[in-house]
Backbone:
């Protein structure tokens, strides 16, 4: 041990764990919320505006992140490359800057402001982007109200268009909740929802597939530039509805099989619900499709 | 490198080196506010220059170099007071409150050390506090290894003489590279 070490205010060993502390994490979040200088500016102007306004103060501006602190020692605002969160009255508002970010990034943001909320953005068919797929209490202690809304910026824009940003809002007394919300899907990403492809805004709009054969339907679908995948279904023998046996899904689908409905599977791909024989009732609807779907 | 890749890389380097850069700043700054400024500005600079940040242990040495320049600018009053997060202030102030500086302040060795020139003190500190060898110091300071060897030799000599004048027998501390 030398004397110079003894006069040092602190040894690095004494600082173990500091990197994961609130201060270090707040600083990290604030720094990466800014674009690094040489990064190409590919983002739409709207998305970099908040950063650009602050850039005037350069380094100081790089650190504007979670700067306001409430009595509990947690920040009242947070910004990262994935999400911005701030308080407005009795609600938390957040702007999803990167809908494809790791869910851990959203969790980090909510943790920084002291809110026990988890958010998962799932790939969705266009109609389900911005829809709440699932919300509810996480079974781990505290829970609170979950009045949760999804909005668009600019107001009313289509969340599937590039200039449109998703805004989320929930009450400040929300606790112990999780939310799953639809986001635009990347090519080859399966949609989490099972939207009908045959309704007005679907990718087969104007074309009905129910009760037709695979032989009839597939050329019509391919004409529209779409690909087909199948889901082999098993109608419940005594009642409405059907089940799907994962083990049977590799079975080769015959041209004479019957199609009962088409769903959006992923970008440019529809999923046909099929059976190897004809049934009296459409198992998807428990009867004719028209009785259930009014377009 | 995509923005996502830059962010991941920066987060990894930040996590890996935060404690060392914080230690570097705390050992050299009289107040928690100054240390927080140096840490914040060092990492903000690293983020702005992420494409220039070297890989492996050289990232740490590079950051020491940035911290050193930041500290020098700070001493010259050229760094504006950073608008830091309150959490960072609280954490670093708490660390300062744990360190019994009073004892060190009265220590003749500490006083003599503080009276050295900035360059001599920094060289000896990089050896004793950051545990760097000549090659690593050369990277931090952006000079040749030979220059480090010569400057370090002179710094040690001056420190020994100053200690002798203050009535302290020169030990072998900070005389050898770590």
Residues:
């Amino acid at each position: 041990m030398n004397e110079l070490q003894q006069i040092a205010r602190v040894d690095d060993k004494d600082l173990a764990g500091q990197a994961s502390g609130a201060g270090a994490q707040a600083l990290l979040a604030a720094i990466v919320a800014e674009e690094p200088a040489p990064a190409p500016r590919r983002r739409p102007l709207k998305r970099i505006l908040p950063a650009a306004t602050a850039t005037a103060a350069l380094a100081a501006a790089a650190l504007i992140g979670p700067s306001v602190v409430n009595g509990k020692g947690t920040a009242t605002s947070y910004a990262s490359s994935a999400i911005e969160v701030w308080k407005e009255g009795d609600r938390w508002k957040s702007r999803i800057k990167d809908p494809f970010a790791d869910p851990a990034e959203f969790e980090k943001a909510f943790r920084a402001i002291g809110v026990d909320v988890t958010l998962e953005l799932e790939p969705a068919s266009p109609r389900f982007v911005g829809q709440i797929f699932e919300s509810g209490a996480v079974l781990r202690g505290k829970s609170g109200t979950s009045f949760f809304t999804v909005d668009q910026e600019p107001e009313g824009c289509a969340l599937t268009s590039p200039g449109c940003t998703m805004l989320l809002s929930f009450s400040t007394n929300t606790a112990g909740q999780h939310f799953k919300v639809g986001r635009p899907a990347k090519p080859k990403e399966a949609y989490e929802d099972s939207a009908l492809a045959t309704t007005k805004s679907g990718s087969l709009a104007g074309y009905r597939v129910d009760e037709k054969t695979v032989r009839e339907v597939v050329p019509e679908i391919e004409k529209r530039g779409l690909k087909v995948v199948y889901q082999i279904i098993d109608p419940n023998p005594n009642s409405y509805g059907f089940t799907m046996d994962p083990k049977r899904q590799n079975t080769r689908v015959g041209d004479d099989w019957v199609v009962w409905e088409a769903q959006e599977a992923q970008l440019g791909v529809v999923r046909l619900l099929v059976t190897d024989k004809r049934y009296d009732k459409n198992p998807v609807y428990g009867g004719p499709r028209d009785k259930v779907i009014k377009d | 490198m995509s923005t996502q890749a830059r962010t991941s890389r920066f987060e990894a380097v930040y996590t890996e080196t935060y404690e060392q850069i914080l230690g570097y700043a705390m050992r050299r700054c009289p107040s928690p506010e100054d240390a927080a400024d140096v840490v914040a500005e060092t990492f903000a600079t690293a983020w702005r220059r992420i494409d220039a940040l070297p890989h492996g242990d050289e990232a740490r040495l590079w950051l020491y170099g940035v911290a050193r320049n930041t500290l020098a600018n700070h001493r010259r009053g050229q760094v504006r007071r950073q608008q830091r997060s309150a959490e960072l202030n609280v954490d670093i102030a708490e660390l300062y409150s744990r360190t019994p500086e009073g004892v060190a302040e009265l220590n003749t060795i500490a006083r003599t050390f503080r009276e050295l020139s900035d360059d001599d003190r920094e060289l000896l500190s990089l050896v004793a506090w950051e545990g760097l060898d000549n090659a690593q110091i050369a990277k931090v300071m952006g000079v040749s290894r030979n220059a480090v060897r010569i400057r370090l030799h002179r710094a040690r000599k001056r420190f020994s003489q100053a200690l002798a004048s203050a009535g302290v027998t020169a030990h072998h501390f900070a005389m050898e590279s770590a």
Observations:
- Chain B touches chain A through 56 residues (CB under 8 Å).
- The longest helix of chain B spans residues 3-28.
- Confidence is low (pLDDT under 50) at residues 174-178 of chain B.
